[in-house]
Amino acid sequence: MQSIQANGYPIHFNEKAYEALNLHLKENKYSNLFILVDSNTNESCLPNLLPLLETDLNIEIIEFEAGESNKNIETCVQIWNVLTELGADRKTLIINLGGGVVTDLGGFVASTFKRGIDFINIPTTLLAMVDASVGGKNGVDLGNLKNQIGVINVPSLVLIDTQYLETLSQNEMRSGLAEMLKHGLIYDKNYWEQFLDLKAIDFADFDQLIYRSVEIKNEIVTQDPTEKNIRKSLNFGHTLGHAIESYFLENENKTTLLHGEAIAVGMILESYIALHKNLISKAEYHQIKASLKSIYETIIFEDNDIEPILDLLIHDKKNEYGTIQFALIEGIGKIKINQSVENELILNAFEDYKS
């Protein structure tokens, strides 16, 4: 697959990825190399990567415990301390090998250590391949609030090797699929329609679907790197989805949701809102709802869950002047940003989702 040129860095795929990585190591005089992994990728992915590295650099592995609950500033402090103790300097390179938690946190650690050192993202989950590792967003959660602390700073390279997907569970694959479905809904109707019958998809061609998803995200981000305008379209399903994800993360009586599971709910809810703001047709809404519910289990919301979820909306990063801003689809394949939505319509969306 042909490499994609993003804003200030290339995205390489499969066999080309390691050729590009080793050339990069050869051409840049790094002092040492750190590979950041979580407890999952240390076991299942690192053994695949290490034999492919052609370098005489001293390599150190830094591992932290897997899971969204560890994507916080405390983990960053521990990693900054390890980097310092092991002699990292301004010419150190960090490779982030993992899913979205690793690439988000690792990019933030690298961007802030000694005011910024080079980093490379090697995403190992479908979600990270099509979303988290691309676009230059790096950061951590603040308590249960998603991605409240962070910077926009691009990696030196992104390397996508789809063989890592063999390490994932079906739930993790579905989680990543939600972002691919989102890309179709906001940008490319034909792409969305390829997913309407999952049984008909030849998964030998799945690499091409991943490629198109990365292409869509990159096309949007390239137009608006710092999210002042069209990049907000990527937040479709995330305004409510992030609030739901945060609520289930902090509530000990709830089973923590994967990112894509929460975003799938968010896309249904926000499609309902789009319907009642006359932005999509009933047929489009029913197609979206039926398609997503056929892939993702229906999440149970009790009556006393909704108000605390709505309270979390005020912390959404798109909000301006205290007003909650939504990105809503305007027909499948198009988007309308900066949409304000009254609470009553959000409550009605939850009622419809439960039906």
Polypeptide structure, described:
- With 355 residues, the chain is an alpha/beta fold.
- It has 2 domains: 4-167, Rossmann fold; 170-354, Up-down Bundle (Dehydroquinate synthase-like, alpha domain).
- Helix content is 46%, strand content 18%.
- The protein has 14 helices and 11 strands.
- The strands form 3 sheets. A 7-stranded mixed beta sheet has the order 1-2-9-6-5-3-4.
- Helix 5 links the parallel strand 5 and strand 6.
- Helix 7 packs across helix 9 (206-223).
- It is globular and about 60 Å long.
- The mean pLDDT is 95.
- Its EC number is 4.2.3.4.
- Its cofactor is Co(2+); NAD(+); Zn(2+).
- Pfam families: DHQ_synthase, DHQS_C.
- Residues 62-174 form the 3-dehydroquinate synthase N-terminal domain.
- GO terms for molecular function: 3-dehydroquinate synthase activity; metal ion binding; nucleotide binding.
How would the blueprint of this fold be written?
Elements: E1 4-6, E2 9-13, H1 15-27, E3 32-38, H2 39-44, H3 46-49, E4 59-64, H4 73-85, E5 92-98, H5 100-112, E6 118-123, H6 126-132, E7 137-142, E8 145-152, E9 157-160, H7 170-187, H8 189-193, H9 206-223, H10 238-250, H11 259-276, H12 282-295, H13 303-312, E10 325-329, E11 335-340, H14 343-354
Parallel strand pairs: 2-9, 3-4, 3-5, 5-6, 6-9
Antiparallel strand pairs: 1-2, 7-8, 10-11
Helix pairs in contact: 5-6, 6-7, 6-9, 7-9, 7-11, 10-11, 10-13, 11-12, 11-14
Cofactor: Co(2+); NAD(+); Zn(2+)
GO biological process, one term: chorismate biosynthetic process
Function: Catalyzes the conversion of 3-deoxy-D-arabino-heptulosonate 7-phosphate (DAHP) to dehydroquinate (DHQ).
